[in-house]
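Lecture 7 notes: from sequence to structure.

We start with a single chain of 66 residues. Read the sequence below before looking at the structure.
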Amino acid sequence: MDGPVLGAIGYGAGFWVWCTGGASDGHAWGWSYRGGTYGWVRGDLSEVEQHTGPGGGGTPQVPRCP
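Now the structure, written as tokens:
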């Protein structure tokens, strides 16, 4: 994974994750969006509250980043 880190996100704040991937630090990271900004969020520092998909359907599957 390479690029900006999304930054500090307060507890309970929401953000979207488009895809996930592993990094050389051994952690899974998600390419994310919040408040007009894109960046990476480390997977072990967040938790899934709700899965959504096209049309509002839920799915537990977040695709791998290319």
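DSSP finds no helices and three strands in the chain. Keep this in mind for problem set 3.
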